[in-house]
Design a protein that fits this description.
Blueprint lengths: L2 E5 L2 E7 L3 H13 L7 H7 L8 H10 L3 E5 L2 E9 L8 H14 L4 E9 L8 H13 L5 E7 L3 H10 L2 E8 L2 E9 L2
Parallel strand pairs: 5-6
Antiparallel strand pairs: 1-2, 2-3, 3-4, 4-5, 6-8, 7-8
Length: 187
């Protein structure tokens, strides 16, 4: 199933990951936007990603519940990773998020957005909201809410998440990083 978004000259398709090539393109986009790859000014202006995934972990996660991507022609230009609770121990920096979520959300059925990123040339075109709208459309029948963490100092990302509907549940420190645990209630 595809969701189309026409924006000026691009035709963006939102879909679930079905190919290894799409996972590899996610990793390439992730590498370009990893905090250590960016200047201080880029971090302040554009935001950053904190976690580096391996192809193996990304594939395992995708096999259980396919990731959400935005494509322009054959290229992944944005992604929002889907992370089920069973992967909480695969990425150590996210373990605390899942432990806190269990305490705060109890029996609610939640899924974690493992990371979101948009290619620099495609920012400010509505793709961030497009990814999240497609995410909700695809998964709201299985889950009550969407949970994620954003580094407290990643102001651009935090404000973007709040504009979609996320609310801060708690601020916590994990691996010497201050995180905002945020949730988007779909009910």
């Amino acid at each position: 199933m595809y969701y189309l978004y026409a924006n000026l000259m691009e035709m963006i398709r939102y879909k679930r990951v079905t190919k290894t090539l799409e996972l590899e393109q996610i990793l390439a986009l992730q590498k370009e936007n990893f905090k250590s790859s960016l200047s201080y000014d880029e971090i302040q202006k554009e935001g950053f990603v904190t976690v580096a995934h391996s192809l193996d972990v990304l594939k395992k996660m995708n096999d259980k519940c396919a990731h959400i991507i935005a494509k322009d022609d054959d290229f992944v230009v944005g992604y929002a990773l889907v992370m089920l609770k069973e992967f909480k121990d695969e990425i150590s920096v996210l373990t605390a998020m899942f432990e806190t979520a269990q305490k705060l959300l109890g029996d609610q059925r939640y899924v974690a957005m493992g990371q979101i990123c948009i290619s620099k040339n495609y920012r400010r075109k509505g793709i961030f909201k497009g990814l999240y709208n497609f995410y909700k459309k695809e998964l709201n029948h299985e889950f009550d809410c969407l949970l994620t963490e954003v580094a407290t100092n990643n102001i651009r990302s935090l404000n973007a998440h709040k504009s979609v509907g996320f609310e801060v549940l708690k601020t916590q420190i994990s691996d010497d990083i201050s995180w905002e645990l945020i949730c988007w209630n779909w009910r």
